[in-house]
Amino acid sequence: MENKTQEEASTIKVSSLTCIDLANPNFQQSAVSLKQACLDCGFFYVTNHGISEELKDEAFEQSKKFFALPLEEKMKVLRNEKHRGYSPVLDQILDPENQVDVVLPGWRATMEKYHQEALRVCKAIARLLALALDLDTNYFDKPEMLGNPIAVMRLLRYEGMSDPLKGIFGCGAHSDYGMLTLLATDSVTGLQDKDVKPRKWEYVPSIKGAYIVNLGDLLERWSNGIFKSTLHRVLGNGQDRYSIPFFIEPSHDCLVECLPTCQSENNLPKYPAIKCSTFLTQRYQQSHVNLSIYKQP
To answer: What does the pLDDT look like over 261-282, one tens digit per residue?
Structure first.
């Protein structure tokens, strides 16, 4: 069985994703490239994003310091009802105020700076997405959309060896349920996406200086299924693997309904309108364990 698992992993090819230069002055050219990536697989890289390697390295260093804490210290900042804080292993089934400053003084300053920078980059990507959808560049900047966004950063550590044949993964196959995800990873291989056309898993390698971006279910719904929210997973290879995903969604009160440029007489809206907070709450509850199981009797 172990040999079969290794053989399966060795035959998985490496994904060849589009790379979008955020410093390209020709916005329309970038939007065309981005649109093709969103139609094909919903995954792409961004470069020249303006986030320094020093800041990213510091964020990873702070992440490692947190995960090195004893379990009882991490549990002091258990994820709260606003989904801020520490999530124990297996808390998220698919597989703060930031409270962690209580146990790691100085942690907040680094993470807040990184959060601000990641949010800036996501908004820049959203402007290109608007162009790719034949909308005004600032369409998603409206107050009810990304003018007052839901922006969540997570620090993740994957441990151990995966065995797909036994259903053991660092993180099981899933699609993200928000608008888009900006992902920083270390150099340890593990992330895979599922190619839409051959429906086979492909490794998504980390590229120095670039971020991985993938679209979420909310944007697929917004675009009437035109843009793709792609399945992805993480396979552990025995090495600790760290990543920092940054999720961005429109405001809680945003009504997500088919975009005007994504419907016609021959392509009617496929999904009913839904409030962003309702959609995200439903999806979150489907994929996470209830916090009450961690409370003392």
So the answer is: 999 999 999 999 999 999 988 8
Q: What is the pTM of this model?
A: 0.84
Its CATH class, for the domain covering 2-288, is mainly beta
166: three-class secondary structure by DSSP:
helix
Q: What is the DSSP letter of 101?
A: G
β-pair partners for 14: 203
Q: Structure tokens of 203?
A: 């490794």
DSSP string across 11-65: HPEEP---EEETT-S-HHHHHHHHHHHHHHTSEEEEE--S--HHHHHHHHHHHHH
Radius of gyration of the chain (CA): 19
- Please give the structure tokens belonging to residue 217: 């279910």
Task: Specify the length of the chain in residues.
Answer: 297
Provide the token pair at 114.
């990184």
Alpha-carbon gap, residue 249 to 258, rounded angstroms:
16
pLDDT tens column, 219-234: 999 999 999 899 988 8
Spans of all domains in the chain: 2-288
Tokens of 71: 């379990």
Sign of the torsion formed by the C-alpha atoms of 255, 245, 40 and 120: positive
Query: Residue 37, class by beta-carbon neighbours within 10 Å (0-12 exposed, 13-18 middle, 19+ buried)?
Result: buried
